[in-house]
Amino acid sequence: MAEISRAMTASLNAEAKQRPQDTLVEKRELAAWVNHELRHMGLALAFPGTGRPAILTATPGRRDADEGSRFRLESKDEQGRRIMSASLEWIPELEPIENPPRIEGGARHR
User: Fold this and answer.
1) Which of 27, 44, 82, 93 could serve as 53's disulfide partner, Cβ 3.0–4.6 Å?
2) Which residues form the domain of 26?
3) Does residue 103 form part of some domain?
4) Integer Cα distance of 70 and 92 in angstroms
């Protein structure tokens, strides 16, 4: 699996950087595309500092949905609480990592 994440890092970053990302809608579409591509291969993004599996999100600016819209990485800490990275105006360098299967809500029931 590590070979897959290494092999796709350059192509994922190149494709992501050339896609439109000026508006909140464009950022959300790009984040959805990145997350879908990674999930399809059993990968996620590495959360800065912890290396935990994360997803890419897009958030609105403070005053206007498009002006100041940002990318963020979202993950969970050891206690399962949601954590967010610092926000960036343009897509950050993406670092794919192996993502263990998540437990779905209904999977706990027999």
Assistant:
1) 44
2) 2-97
3) no
4) 10
